[in-house]
Amino acid sequence: MLAPVVTSALVISLAAACSSGSSEKKGASSGGTLRVGVVASTISTLDAYANLRSQDFYVRNATMFEPLAHRKKDGGFEWALATGITHNADNTEWTVKLRPNVKFHDGSTFGADDVIAVFQRVLDKKNALIERNYIDFMDPKGIEKVDDLTVKFKLAEPYGPFEFAVTNSNIIFYKKGSKPEQAMGTGPFQLVSFTPGRETVVKRYDGYWGEKAKVDQVKIISFKTAEASTNALIGRQIDASSNILQTSLRTIEKTPGLKIMKSDVNLKVSIGMRADTEPFKDVRVRQAMRLIMNRKLALSNAFDGLGELANDHSGFNRCLPAVPQREQNLEQAKKLLADAGKSNLSINLETAANKPGMLQLVQILAEEAKKIGVTIKVQKMELGAYLEKWGERVFYTGYDTRPYLEGVPEIISNDAVLNHTHWNDAEFKSLAKKLYATSDPNEQCEIEKQMKKIEYDRGASILTATNPTVSVYSSKVNGLIPEFPSGNLYDFRKVTIDQ
């Protein structure tokens, strides 16, 4: 059943109740245990580079491991394990300076050998790691140790956005030679215990190089669904979560002791169409599905009016192509399907419903499709089972929060796990090569516009709306900061809990 339409007054009321930024509060006490709810599954492992991932993977990694730098909304960096990156005149040689006096959780010293070991593992094609897609322009043989705190990268071709690639939040560093179950990172928290699909417990690492965490422990508690996570928040079984039902926000707003935080970073929930498989091999079928979607209804019903309409291309509101906002056109959709020989199409649409609005979005598409004789059977699945066949599904849901430069490598990848729509467009790939050859932001922007126009015309995803990542937390919790670019609650360094 679809959620009822949200009235304008309610949207305004909810927006007023949402706070942006962080939950800062002066004079808050320290210590205690923060309980964070996530939607997860039993496939989870402690390997910082596991390919099958649910939300607990990202939250856990953010507590125990660190990247070279954290990206900021203004395009700059908050340096973490690196202190700076420089390059030569033609962008073929890049030098990374590492932070001194950083210790792993066992007290040993972090350095160049650890950085090189991680990059070598990621680049090894036998490991088939997702992160290789972000740095596949590198030659493993071109990575050199200059000294204990300096690593040099020699590239075969110029690569303008090198800094952007190597500071990906998922490229994180562990001790060379350590075992995955040790989770031997440098982060502000260290491992206490881990039970797949149930709970991860981490404690403050007092040897951390930066500002020490204020809470004693963080418990990352797993739930199978967003409904369960939401109910746990309302029942005071957890203190915070970014995995909540947006359709429950009206109830949460009226619940004493709970606060709503709306990130200013947008999330795109997508519906993917496998472009190398029937019926979506025919671009007319993909175009028809996009025209069936009622975007305004989806924004109001699936996302409670929080967000903006999207236009079937990835990335966010920068460097936009000169194309009209796509609107529902059932007559044109019906004609396209008839021309493709797919009238009265019947197809399954699979979802794990692991992001707010995801289930409601596909239900809206299914209801609208009925109006032109198309049957879309929505199949809701447990997250673990859903992820096990990621890259094999034909009609399915996903999500993205990444900037365009970071998302494109997956779109052009030959790896089914990464390019899960199996879309292969020669013109798009050619433009992508030009995009990554330049470091000029204006030139990059013009190329992005052309690429997004191609996605709009013949891509393989239905991107209906962008909506903010909404988190809910106890009023006793202070100092929560939404992570950039996801908007999720990953950073617990400044958190305090009123006792």
Automatic annotation (TrEMBL):
Residues 80-389 form the Solute-binding protein family domain. Pfam families: SBP_bac_5. It comes from the Bacteria. InterPro entries: Peptide/Ni-bd, SBP_5, SBP_5_dom. One of its GO terms (biological process) is peptide transport. One of its GO terms (cellular component) is periplasmic space. SUPFAM superfamilies: Periplasmic binding protein-like II. This is Peptide/nickel transport system substrate-binding protein. One of its GO terms (molecular function) is peptide transmembrane transporter activity. It comes from Actinomadura pelletieri DSM 43383.
